[in-house]
Amino acid sequence: MYNWVFYIIVFFVVGEYIFSQWLASRNRRAASPVLPEMLRGLYDERKYADQQNYFKVNNRFGLITSTYTTLLVLLMLFLGGFGWLDTWAFSLFEKLIPATLFFFFVLFLVNDLLTIPFDWYDTFVIEDRFGFNKTTRKTFVADKLKSWLFGIVIGGLLLAAILWLYLWLGTSFWWVACIVVVAFSMLMNMFYSEWIVPLFNKQTPLEEGELRNAIEKFANRAGFKLNNIYVIDGSKRSTKANAYFSGLGPKKRIVLYDTLIDDLSTEEIVAVLAHEIGHYKHKHTWQMMGVSVMNTVLMFFLLSLVLDSSVLAEAMGGSTPSFPLALVAFGLLYTPLELLTGIGINALSRRNEYQADAFAASFGLANALIGGLKKLSVKSLSNLTPDSLYVKVYYSHPTLLQRMAALQKYK
Ligand SMILES: [Zn+2]
Question: Less crowded by CB within 10 Å, the N or C end of the chain?
Answer without folding.
Answer: C
